[in-house]
Automatic annotation (TrEMBL):
EC number: 5.1.3.15
Top-level taxon: Eukaryota
EC top class, as a word: isomerase
Organism: Dioscorea alata (Purple yam)
Protein name as annotated: Aldose 1-/Glucose-6-phosphate 1-epimerase protein
Keywords recorded for this protein, A-Z: Isomerase
Amino acid sequence: MSTEKPPVELVKGINGLDKIVLREIRGCSAEVYLYGGHVTSWKNDHGEELLFVSNKAIFKPPKAIRGGIPICFPQFSNFGSLEQHGFARNRFWSIDTDSPPFPTNSTSKAFVDLILKPSDEDSKIWPHSYEYRLRVALGPGGDLMLTSRIRNTNTDGKPFSFTFAYHTYFSVSDISEVRVEGLETLDYLDNLKERERFTEQGDAITFESEVDKIYLSTPTKIAILDHEKKRTFVLRKDGLPDAVVWNPWDRKAKAMADFGDDEYKHMLCVEAAAIEKSITLKPGEEWKGRLELSAVPSSYCSGQLDPAKVLNG
């Protein structure tokens, strides 16, 4: 008789780093490393991996883990004076045992609450006091939910500002067979052209070269359609007005030590973010940003996937 594994388990991961495994009764799972508060795995009930993590990812502090869902805080990219994407993704988080319960409409037992507070070293480079609480939850249907709450705990009366992104790497069968729906006709900043502002012209975003764009004032729902796998990822987001779309393509892939030369073909980053307008908190104020990911079968409709059902469902 098989013994049922617990919905939440703390185990040792790669290089002895602590990780939490979340399991739902139907067989879906997720893994979160305390290093970086970093989700590194999200599997459906068939055991298929839905996130991309590079085979060359270095699970060794202080290097950030390449793939999964890195958290960019308190800075996205080099929008500011800190290291690229801030420091939350290469700090050790703690399990938050005295977290006030999140309001939740789910009966899921598969969740973990993590907390990050500034170290003395961090305070030298970013002189603010904060509490960052992160809940990672796996819904009964296999949806993955990340809820971030960041509170200004400064005692000097000073506000602080930050930019933010859930830097999600999705696993796709073939980047040239993928399209992103929900960002049509929107303005974006092109990081490959010194953040010049353009308007998206296509009826869907497809990929044939390097892309690094920050879409502005985006809808709460975005779909990624993977034709070959007949799978659609749906992102639902709250408190995160922007969306980053990134694929390094071949030249940049070869230049990254922690990324395989051909791995760009099997990943796509679509990131829920708050970048263009930074978030400012006065002491005692709290910001909340939520991301919910689901993977649903896509049906073919006259040779095309039918995203309207997904986006309007």
